[in-house]
Amino acid sequence: MSYEVLIVGAGLCGLRAAARLRDLGKSVLVVEKSRGLGGRAATRRWSQRPVDHGAQFFTAKTPEFAAQVEDWEKSGVCHEWARGFHRFADGRLQSPVRDAYPRYACRAGMSSLGRALGEPLGDLVRRESKVTRVAAAGGQWEATLEDGSRLQAKRLLLTPPPAQCSVLLADAAPDAAKELRLLNSLPCIALAACYPRSDLSWQGIQAPEDPVLSWIGHDTSKRPDLHEGVTILMLHGAPRFSETHSHTADEDIATAMLQRASDMTSQDWTAPSEYFVQRWRYALPDPVGASHGPAVYQVPAPLVVAGDWCAGGRIEGAWLSGMAAADALLALPAQA
Ligand SMILES: Cc1cc2nc3c(=O)[nH]c(=O)nc-3n(C[C@H](O)[C@H](O)[C@H](O)COP(=O)(O)OP(=O)(O)OC[C@H]3O[C@@H](n4cnc5c(N)ncnc54)[C@H](O)[C@@H]3O)c2cc1C
User: Is this prediction's pTM over 0.90?
Assistant: First the structure.
């Protein structure tokens, strides 16, 4: 089957781009390697409870994304969770400074965003379909899936993190692959820990300078009615810590991260009733705030590579980059 546009990845970038292309009347297919939608805006069901082990919250600083968030708020997809978080800096915990930006979260978890964007696309999204190779032949792109099947399209949009796009393009577009290899991403080890208590009043602690933890999130506070009687903390390892411990055993990681959380909060978190560890190799673009637009290539056939990394990082950047990628792709001339 041949499409006008093939999109690899059903994260927020790929899904937003697909909706825009469909609205413009283009024949489009999204292929996603996972069962779920939303990519790094990810939620795990843990003992029947949703826990966000990827993105924790989001802001809306542009009018375009603010309009989208308003729709999501009205339909119950997300709600305002906080206006600023505690901060751990200069060796002490500091109270939140409220600012103009609501931090939004989703009661059913951040994967609600992928569902909200992806479900209206119906069978334009094909899940559990990992692309293993892309090639160009006769002015068209051809993607090979893990099961050996092939898909053809006039235009290709790649939305996985740049290092993964680079691998896919190594043969078909070596110059593009080389450029993408230079775009760095930061890893993150995420640790969820559960406790039989429900007396915590804060929502999150940001620790941008700490060598062990960059974030302590009180996940339960996003949906207290679903988590009665328990507290779930979500800890994020600082980038250097996450890199150094990429192969460390889960229990040693948990010991180090929970001890640090206890030191930072002056409360004992070292004995959770259960925990899990998730290792993100490509969590955030480095530097996070860079904004240079999608990477656009004409040869051997129209190709755009996009994602959070080209529009300021984060959820908002991913969504905006999907819009920009769709427009950039259509601006390229395709073979008739
Ligand atoms: C631990 C962590 C914490 C974060 N915290 C925040 C936060 O608090 N606030 C915030 O705004 N942002 C946060 N982020 C960043 C945010 O999650 C991302 O910026 C955003 O989700 C990226 O969306 P994307 O569509 O660009 O990429 P992705 O979500 O990575 O989407 C790419 C998709 O491509 C798929 N894919 C990859 N390879 C293939 C293949 N070969 N074939 C088919 N499919 C493929 C992937 O499965 C994925 O679904 C966090 C991220 C992580 C990991």
Answer: yes
